[in-house]
């Protein structure tokens, strides 16, 4: 590049910069402008909390939450089942068939699709699962007499006052929340028991006399 070309490039660069400065002028304001008056969000939150505290609303909210928590612990959502009027037993075969190959982390096939699996052969049910309605005093007595003698058994409420029945029984109980087990095993009435016999399960419903 000769000195003339170099000089021409410098002149062109200066001209471009000058043109930018010409166009970068103050165009003034378009419409009415206002100062930014938006308040800090944290400040607003603190102010609202202070207002609710002074009015007592915050205490009422906390009290309501405590009451709802206590009521939930006392009576979780369960199932409304009738008392069994006659003995009923239903066999449940837990065997299922694999729909696709079961592989390990390295892709090695452990069980091929079509393999039949019985979970009870892998982990037997060594206890009974006993279900009652905690609002029925006769069923509570039945549970204590029929199931509570063996500490391995699991005593499960399908409904009722969980805290009151637990205190009355003096032992750990479970609650079938939202009737998951009731639906899963097709329990239609209580008291009911789920137990293993051989390689199958039985759901039994017992009338109380």
Task: Indicate the topology.
Blueprint: H1 3-23, H2 41-55, H3 57-74, E1 88-92, E2 96-97, E3 102-103, E4 109-111, E5 116-117, H4 119-122, E6 129-133, H5 137-146, E7 154-159, H6 162-169, E8 174-175, H7 180-185, E9 192-197, E10 200-205
Parallel strand pairs: 6-7, 7-8
Antiparallel strand pairs: 1-10, 2-5, 3-4, 6-9, 9-10
Structural summary, described in words:
This protein is α+β, with helices and mostly antiparallel strands and 209 residues long. The protein is built from seven helices and ten strands. It has helices at residues 3-23, 41-55, 57-74, 119-122, 137-146, 162-169, 180-185, and strands at 88-92, 96-97, 102-103, 109-111, 116-117, 129-133, 154-159, 174-175, 192-197, 200-205. It has a six-stranded mixed sheet, with helices on one face. A two-stranded antiparallel sheet has the order 2-5. A two-stranded antiparallel ribbon has the order 3-4. Strand 3 (102-103) and strand 4 (109-111) form a beta hairpin.
Quick synopsis:
Among the domains are: 42-74; 88-93 and 124-205, 3-Layer(aba) Sandwich (Glutaredoxin), CATH 3.40.30.10. The protein is 39% helix and 19% strand. It is built from 7 helices and 10 strands.
CATH domain class of the domain at 88-93 and 124-205? Alpha Beta
Order of helices and strands: HHHEEEEEHEHEHEHEE
Tell me the structural class.
alpha+beta
Q: Into which percentage range does the β-strand content fall?
A: 15-25%
What's the story with the biggest beta sheet?
A: 6 strands, mixed
- Counting DSSP E segments of at least 2 residues, the number of strands comes to 10
* Morphology: flat
**Helix percentage range:** 25-40%
Q: Could you name the CATH homologous superfamily of the domain at 88-93 and 124-205?
A: Glutaredoxin
Distance between the termini: 114 Å
């Amino acid at each position: 590049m000769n000195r003339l070309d170099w000089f021409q490039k410098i002149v062109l660069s200066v001209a471009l910069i000058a043109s930018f400065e010409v166009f970068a002028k103050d165009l003034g304001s378009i419409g009415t402008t206002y100062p930014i008056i938006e308040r800090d969000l944290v400040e607003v939150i603190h102010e609202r909390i202070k207002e609710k505290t002074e009015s007592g609303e915050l205490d009422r909210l906390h009290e309501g939450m405590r009451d709802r928590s206590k009521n939930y612990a006392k009576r979780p959502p369960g199932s409304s089942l009738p008392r069994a009027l006659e003995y009923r037993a239903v066999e449940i075969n837990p065997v299922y068939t694999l729909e696709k190959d079961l592989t390990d982390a390295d892709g090695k096939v452990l069980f091929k699709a079509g393999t039949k699996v019985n979970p009870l052969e892998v982990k037997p049910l060594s206890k009974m699962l006993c279900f009652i309605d905690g609002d029925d005093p006769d069923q509570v007595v039945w549970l204590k007499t029929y199931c509570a003698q063996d500490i391995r058994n699991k005593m499960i409420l399908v409904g009722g006052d969980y805290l009151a029945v637990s205190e009355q029984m003096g032992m750990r109980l479970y609650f079938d929340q939202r009737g998951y087990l009731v639906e899963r095993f097709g329990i239609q009435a209580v008291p009911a028991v789920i137990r293993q016999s051989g390689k199958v399960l039985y759901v039994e419903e017992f009338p109380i006399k």
